[in-house]
Amino acid sequence: MKKIRNYISIILVFVGLISSGQDLKKYRVSMDNIFELDSSNYVLIPVGWETNATFQGIKISGSGYKNILVYNKVTDDVKPMFEDSIQIINYLRNRYNDNSKIKTYLGKYFVLNVTIEDYNKDRWLNYSDPSYLFVYNLETGDLRQMSPRGCDLKEYIFIESEGTILATFISDTNKDKDFNDNDSELLYKIDLENPEKNKVLYQLKIKKEKQYQD
């Protein structure tokens, strides 16, 4: 049964890529990491970057993915989360005990941490660049960056009763294109239904000699 399911997944990947008009030679499908979202109609299919990849002169480095294909089990539709852009995608699977399924909080929202820009202008997209928090609406296909620019994502938790996310970021406070002890840590609230209400709740200086700042 598992082998049959893998074959079906492979077919879905290629159908999705062909229908979107993209070159199959540019993709590396990670079959081991295909997974169903718990209590939903969706299967997510990660697509890896090719070896020694570059995009518009930017070299790609890291273990994340190039894109994620979203397969609707009811309609048989397959579509990519990202369109015509450069990114390294991670989705924090280690938050869950069951490696085959991931819980979807609030039913329709899926959270990713994504590196999308060569922030320090070194011609590499890698761990030195900030990781931003994105939210994908499985029902509408709407993808939004929820974290401020120049802020590197550390951790987040869902507050399910309120439909919000609490996240911590390292902010490039001194604008030196690096994220270190000279910067600040932000406690940030994200409203999934009303992103215009997203806001900084608290700012904490990292340096010990300047411990707290409102």
Walk me through this protein's architecture.
The chain has 214 residues and is mainly beta. It folds into two domains: 1-145, no CATH class; 147-214, no CATH class. The protein is 8% helix and 40% strand. It contains one helix and 17 strands. The protein has one helix spanning 2-19; strands at residues 28-29, 35-38, 42-48, 54-55, 58-60, 65-72, 78-80, 88-90, 101-103, 109-115, 124-125, 132-137, 143-145, 151-159, 164-171, 184-191, 199-205. Strands 1, 2, 3, 6, 7 and 9 form a six-stranded mixed β-sheet that branches. It has a four-stranded antiparallel β-sheet with strand order 8-10-12-13, with no helix packed on it. The protein has a four-stranded antiparallel β-sheet with strand order 14-15-16-17, with no helix packed on it. Mean pLDDT is 79; it is low at 21-25 and 93-104.
